[in-house]
Amino acid sequence: MSSLIVAHTRYQILEQIRVPIGLVASAFFPAASMLAFVVPFTGDDPVASTRATGSMMLIGAMSAAIMGLSITVAQDREQPWNTYVRTLPAGPFPRFAGRILTTMATMLVATIPVLLIATLFTTATITLPKLLIGLVALLGGAVPFMLIGLFLGYLLASKAAIGVSQVLFFPIAILGGLFLPPQVMPDFVQVVSPFVPSRGAGELIWAVTTGSTPNTVAVIMLGVWTVIAALAAGWAYRRDEGRRFS
């Protein structure tokens, strides 16, 4: 099974390298947001700029997971090669794992411009051990978003996946407090925010990078969303398989 996962991951990474627009898109938006909002407004505050850097990294990860993954999966489903691969006896797990590992690699690459901007133009500060733990928290917190991307990719046609993933991405990021701290948002947003998966992922990253105490409800809901998204992704895969091959 491990060799199949490696094979699927290698194949998908090569595809990503040959058509790098998804990688460029995942890296561009958080880097541009850093330059437009973080550097001029919080760049002189070490804690605020460190927290904002973590938020921008999570935004890049969410972009790769929700938009990049859903569109890629939906487009792959329309290719003849995908139909052939689906008939092989390996089952869905190696493909799911390969896609998740490839998306994680994309996420890590997308953090590089954000970290460079934070280093050069802000007073954000972090030790190497905390940075490494923060990257682990980023990847762990991004799991439900990758599962959401798989769910959308197996449920929708490619054109629909483009629109739905974009419409879904921004409200989740805003409600999670990634563009503005939750404390400065309207009261009704503060009430809803802990129940959105992006808030839980953000709390983990902020806790590691700035030493803040994470919101317990938000972290618990992140786990709940992971389970729900996993069940939804599995259901969408079986639904698609049933419609195509039964």
Automatic annotation (TrEMBL):
PANTHER family, sorted: NODULATION PROTEIN J (PTHR43229:SF2)
Membrane topology: Multi-pass membrane protein
Membrane spanning residue stretches: 21-43, 55-75, 96-119, 131-153, 160-180, 216-237
InterPro entries recorded: ABC2_TM, ABC_2_transport, Nod_factor_ABC_transporter
Keyword Membrane recorded: yes
Domain spans labelled ABC-2 type transporter transmembrane: 5-199
UniProt-annotated location(s): Membrane
Name of the featured protein: ABC transporter permease
Keyword terms, alphabetized: Antibiotic resistance, Membrane, Transmembrane, Transmembrane helix
